[in-house]
Amino acid sequence: MLVDRRDTLGHARTDAVSRQHHLLLELVPSGAKTFLSAPQARALLNTVRPRDIVGRTRRQLASELIIEIAVIDKKIKAANTHLTELVASTGSTLQQLNGIGPSGAARLLGDIGDIDRFASRDHFASWNGTAPIDASSGDQHRHRLSRTGN
């Protein structure tokens, strides 16, 4: 549940940043870079003083989105801290692997459970869909991954 919550926060942040970027493209003549932090967006927004009602409304909405993104960032940070603590309490070293963060490690541990429930590496590979399946035909020998994996 916590991993799903963290994923939802990530999606909400992406959506808010996208909306903010669209508003800044309309407000700033040269546009805005794609990956803006909340303080960078605030600094950029402070340089804009629209005179018409549409521009002022866009600026107000962009300002509200900056606050929304800052709140989401705090929630993501808290969720990551909580997930890191939970993963550490299991004694897992998954987060030491390159590309595995607290959310990914927690997702793996939650989905897999006790690894000892699998009789062998092959059984685990079959369960998670990474065991190659024979897809040979005639003299051509090849394998593919199972489409029925986890």
UniProtKB/TrEMBL annotation:
<dbReference type="InterPro" id="IPR047650">
    <property type="entry name" value="Transpos_IS110"/>
</dbReference>
<dbReference type="Pfam" id="PF02371">
    <property type="entry name" value="Transposase_20"/>
</dbReference>
<feature type="domain" description="Transposase IS116/IS110/IS902 C-terminal">
    <location>
        <begin position="93"/>
        <end position="150"/>
    </location>
</feature>
<protein>
    <recommendedName>
        <fullName>Transposase IS116/IS110/IS902 C-terminal domain-containing protein</fullName>
    </recommendedName>
</protein>
<feature type="region of interest" description="Disordered">
    <location>
        <begin position="131"/>
        <end position="150"/>
    </location>
</feature>
<dbReference type="InterPro" id="IPR003346">
    <property type="entry name" value="Transposase_20"/>
</dbReference>
<feature type="compositionally biased region" description="Basic residues">
    <location>
        <begin position="141"/>
        <end position="150"/>
    </location>
</feature>
